[in-house]
Design a protein that fits this description.
This protein is an alpha+beta fold. Helices cover 45% and strands 15% of the residues. The chain is globular and about 80 Å long. This is Acyl-coenzyme A oxidase 4 (Peroxisomal).
Length: 362
């Protein structure tokens, strides 16, 4: 009986498949020992190349930067990929972040730290360098909001809805902007979590900001007592002030994200070898690293300068808007280059970049 070559090859393939099926599952850490994932040890900061950023900070701001970085690298880095995959919030880190005493940033009193705007910005950047657990932003057209506040005896009735409110599904307090039906001005109100008529529903199926529990908030005949109206928030001008600070914080969040991506890529390219040498020795990878690093130096300086303008009472809404627009555009470019540099590992959350690229490209 004659066996043709295709039958012989089929027999070889079956034999090979049989032998492979008896092998243990691939241990990625053993198969790729040259590249350290962010989940096992976050890379050291290599992105502050010649600014010596600590030299631009006060001793208090330096201390804030140091303690937040240490906490983020130790407590957040090992778990963020897991919670990103599950689209869940790691509640166990809240006490550890709370112990840093950075929440509410620049607010003085009420148990808040009263940080400088630079200190608050640096704290946010250091958290964002490891993962962006918060979303300090608002809708673009705040002047057109439709949620209303109607004065009644002893308080106010809120009616309306909000979308993409970060972590609204578990927050104890929500600050709601609503239009006063009498003055037509925008006011702010504190709404407690279990207020009758308040519903917060998690937005599912996101591919970006997966840890942030964004919610759809519905306010249906929600009563807010007079003492829970924010007294200093009386007009759209106050909204502009709030948005300006928020935009500056978004700029610093982007700075932190870009720093984390560069730090990851820098270590990866030093460790990962191809063609008998670390990837970092090849000029095409060096060129991309240089572009990323140059972006970050300029981003830090621009963000720091706007913080100084704010502290001197000279920051305008235009300054904040330009900082956000330009810095986020440079961060977008930096993250895209980082994705290219990691090759196939650029889509693995173990190597950090995949998690943050969806923030800028969704």
């Amino acid at each position: 009986m004659t066996i043709n070559s295709s039958e012989q090859q089929d027999g070889v393939n079956k034999s090979a498949r049989s032998s492979y099926s008896n092998l243990p599952a691939l241990d990625v850490s053993l198969a790729f020992p040259q590249a350290t994932p962010a989940t096992s040890k976050f890379p050291p900061c290599a992105s502050d190349y010649y600014i010596n950023f600590d030299g631009l900070l006060t001793s208090e701001e330096q201390a804030i930067r140091k303690k937040v970085r240490e906490c983020a690298e130790k407590e957040l880095a090992p778990i963020v990929a897991e919670y990103w995959e599950k689209a869940e919030f790691p509640f166990q880190v809240i006490p550890k972040l709370g112990a840093l005493n950075i929440a509410a940033g620049t607010i003085k009193g009420y148990g808040c730290p009263g940080l400088s705007i630079t200190g608050a910005a640096v704290a946010l950047a250091e958290i964002a360098r490891v993962d962006a657990l918060t979303e300090p932003d608002y809708g673009s057209d705040a002047s057109a909001l439709r949620t209303t506040a109607t004065k009644v005896e002893g308080g106010w009735i809120l009616e309306g809805q909000k979308r993409w409110v970060g972590n609204s599904t578990f927050a104890d307090l929500l600050v709601i902007l609503a239009r006063n039906t009498t003055t037509k001005q925008i006011n702010a109100f504190i709404v407690k979590k279990h207020a009758p008529g308040l519903t917060a529903t998690k937005i599912e199926n996101k591919i970006g900001l997966r840890i942030v529990q964004n919610g759809d908030v519905l306010l249906k005949n929600v009563f807010v007592p007079d003492e829970d109206r924010v007294p200093g928030f009386k007009s759209f001008q106050d909204t502009i002030t709030t948005l300006s600070i928020s935009r500056l914080m978004v700029a610093w969040q982007s700075i932190g994200i870009a720093m984390g991506v560069y730090d990851m890529c820098h270590r990866y390219l030093m460790e990962r070898k191809q063609f008998g040498a670390p990837l970092a020795v090849f000029q095409i990878t060096q060129q991309k690293l240089v572009q990323m690093l140059g972006n970050i130096q300029a981003m830090i300086l621009a963000g720091w300068r706007v913080c100084k303008l704010y502290e001197d009472g000279k920051m305008t809404a235009g300054h904040a808007s330009l900082a956000k627009a330009w810095i986020t555009s440079r961060a977008r470019e930096t993250v895209a280059l980082g994705r290219e540099l990691l090759g196939g590992n650029g889509i693995s959350t173990d190597f950090h970049v995949a998690k943050v690229i969806t923030i800028f490209f969704t």
